[in-house]
Every structure is written in C-alpha cells, then in structure tokens.
Amino acid sequence: MKQKLRQKIIDCFHRFYYDSADTWFQNTFLGYEIQQCPLDLQLYQELVTRIRPSFVLQTGVNQGGSLLYFAGLFDLIKAGAERLVIGIDIKLTERARSLMHPRIRLIGGESTDPAVVQQVKDLVAGRTGLVSLDSDHSKAHVLKELNIYKEFVGIGGYLVVEDTNLNGHPVAQQWGAGPFEAVEEFLKGDPGFVRDDQLWQRNLFSFHQYGWLKRIR
Questions:
Q1: Which of 18, 83, 98, 111 would bridge with 59, disulfide CB 3.0–4.6 Å?
Q2: What is the pTM for the complete model shown?
Q3: pLDDT tens digits, one per residue of 163-180
C-alpha cells in the first residue's frame, strides 16, 4: 500500500511539473532554449563523463539548447576536438542555425532518410557514441529510428528515447502510441539492449523514464 501511494504521489508531481507552463518549457542553456527536465540533463552529464562517447547524436534539434549542452560537456571533460555533437532535424530553426560551437554539426532532413543516415556515417567514420532520439514522437517513427540508430551505439553505450512519459506514462494520456510503446516493441525484438532503470529511478522520475537503453551486446 505504501509503495502504491508513493508512486501515486510521484506521478502526480510528474504530471503537475510537466503540465506547468512556467517550468521545464522555459528552461535555457547559455541563452538557448533547452526544453528538458534538469534531472535528465544531470543524467546525460553523468553518462558523457562516464562513458566518454566518441560523439553525441540527437534527432530533433528544436532551438539547439541540447546540442550546445552536449558540446559544453565535451569541453568540460577536455575531450578531443574530434568529439562531435550531431543534430538532425527535418526543419532546422534559425535559432539552431545560429549555433557557433566548433563541435556542432547540423543536418537538415528526415532522420530516417537514407541520405541523412549516410551523412551521419560519413561524420562518425565507424565510431560509436551516445544517441538521443527526440524527433517525431509517433510509435512508428520512433521504432524506425531505433532500428536505424542502434548501429551507432557500441557495447556499454546508451540509446536514449526521449519523452517516454507520453501517452499516460504518466503524462499526456490522450497522446496515442508513442515513444514508450516503441521501446517496448523494440526491446522484444533486440536482446542487445536493456532498460537501465536504475540510472533514473534515484531521481524518482524522468521525462524519458524506461527510455534509457544500454547496449549490452
């Protein structure tokens, strides 16, 4: 009973925080909009510091704050200049295009387009890194991205599916099948990845809960 009550309280706060117009939606990083929960940014920082990926790749750029954040993390850990942050978006905003950090590479286009994927391959040159999926949140699209971009993650690395809290998990109950459901289907068919729930559960909730996927083989 206590555990059920505890989870109910956590979910209520999660929904309250998520639905508040003046919380995470207003966050910025060095002046650039970064619509992320700070708890999740902390987790990304831990992963970049611990696994030191060869690159960070994010689908869905929005205003560019997350790309700048990842680039700053590479700077803080004194990573070599070859460590890139790659952002893909079907429609790059002027704000994102104004990013001047030397590590950042922008690719305009659909993340599942073979031509776009080839551009990524050319940039990473066979290396593996940290991948964050944050574009179209429909189940079909996320599942397609998962099956494409899993190849860019090495053993011990992470493939993060953002916004798995949608469709009643526990927010946006009317969203429809989305990132959470895509992860469920993906994990059933690919034993190479597992959910790393311990990573986020100490923070009680995550916008990407059940979407922090670790490659184990």
A1: 111
A2: 0.97
A3: 999 999 999 999 999 999
